[in-house]
Amino acid sequence: MRLDRPADQVAPDLLGCVLEGHGVQVRLTEVEAYSGEGLDPASHAHRGPTARNTLMFGPPGFLYVYFTYGMHWCANVVTGPEGRASAVLLRAGEVVGGLDVARARRPRATDRELCRGPARLAKALALDRESLGLNLLDPASPVRLLTRRGPRPVVSSGPRVGITVGTQTPWRFWVEGDRTVSSYKPGVRRVRS
Questions:
Q1: Omega cis (within 30) before 59
Q2: Domain spanning 7-139+151-175 has what CATH number?
Q3: What is the mean pLDDT of residues 177-193?
Q4: How far apart are CA 136 and CA 139, in angstroms?
Q5: pTM of this prediction?
Q6: DSSP E strand stretches across the chain
């Protein structure tokens, strides 16, 4: 699969692909595209490169992992031409290998809920700070992106989840009718006191 394309083009092609790592395989069922500098106000790279987001500027095929809300890790596949930031957030998936390992990491979750949401997916795959910058296309990498086998699933798209800017951009893509796809929740702007 070519990842050196804009995130909104790569994102639907990732659906049905498998992310494999740390003893678990997850078939991707939901993703969100984020573009780069100046183009997408919801992107971490909207204002240019920083120490946190520099990996988003390429090359494509690497894992961009970030910590959010002071307690969760989320994972993205870096896309686009090198030098132009873009990435695809991995929002949800179905565990298709290593179910017992994923259950041990998320013992209270039902099988449907194991990877239903970006933080849950990262936890089931044991993705954290140590995963930042892994080459998903390198066969020797501890985390790999495997191309989809079989037909492309029926894909739906709509607004991204939980953001407060760029809300009209329909860059959330999911496998239509899949039970592991997360529920849509619009972002709520927080007021600081």
A1: yes
A2: 3.10.300.10
A3: 77
A4: 8
A5: 0.90
A6: 18-21, 24-34, 63-68, 72-78, 87-97, 143-146, 155-158, 172-175
